[in-house]
Amino acid sequence: MPLSQSALLYAVVPAAGVGKRMGADRPKQYLLLNDRTILSHTLSVLLAHPRIHKVVVALGPEDGYFDELAEANDPRLIRVEGGAERADSVRLALQAIEQPDAWALVHDAARPCLSHQDIDKLLAFPGEQGAILAMPVRDTMKRARSEGGIDHTVPRDDLWHALTPQLFPATELRDALLKAERDGATITDEASAMERQGWHPALVAGQPDNIKITHPDDLRLAQLFLASREAQ
Q1: What is the pTM (predicted TM-score) of this model?
Q2: CA distance 165 to 111
Q3: Rounded mean pLDDT, 195-208
Q4: Mean pLDDT of 120-147
Q5: Are the C-beta atoms of 3 and 49 separated by less than 8 Å?
Q6: Quick one: how many helices (H) and strands (E) in the chain?
Q7: Which of 49, 72, 177, 184 lies 20 to 30 Å (CA to CA) from residue 41?
Q8: Has residue 196 got a pLDDT over 90?
Q9: Does CATH number 3.90.550.10 belong to domain 9-231?
Q10: What is the mean pLDDT of the chain?
């Protein structure tokens, strides 16, 4: 069942404590990618989508780069101070959404190659329990021994790589993250918080170019993906 056209949709971007600087003098979301920062690419895609009402960005308390982005002055953008972990930043961003029936589309700051096509596919399949973009596992999976050797092969049937965006009712997601924090649970993505509450989000196959930039090779690959998209 698709998300209702009348549903209020917010995009949430946790950009505090995104991770390693990849040897640079600034957080990786502010590295240049085809003459614009990674975060600029990410925000521009979300702000340009017609279904997204506002974008909430969770920033680090000492972020000195965000104001330099053109998107920083967009009236549809809301800034909040994020937390030490991704789950903390998402929860704090969700607290800025006052409408109780709003939906939240949570997307990694370091995934700049997101397409409107993938957003549309996700909005078409959330049902009542939400949905996430994902990719079926294609490679043979190995479980490692403690010393580094192979312990056994893991069947890849029904295994998926979780991607973002991940789409859930904003209030329910906020409450699930808060409960996980109180329980001391480790939350690696929004779906894992909802799964603890008994939810079974839909898996929506996304595009393989929706990569997360975690090391320099990813940056070069993202440049190729974006250049190819612009050429088309």
Answers
A1: 0.94
A2: 9
A3: 97
A4: 93
A5: no
A6: 6, 11
A7: 177
A8: yes
A9: yes
A10: 93
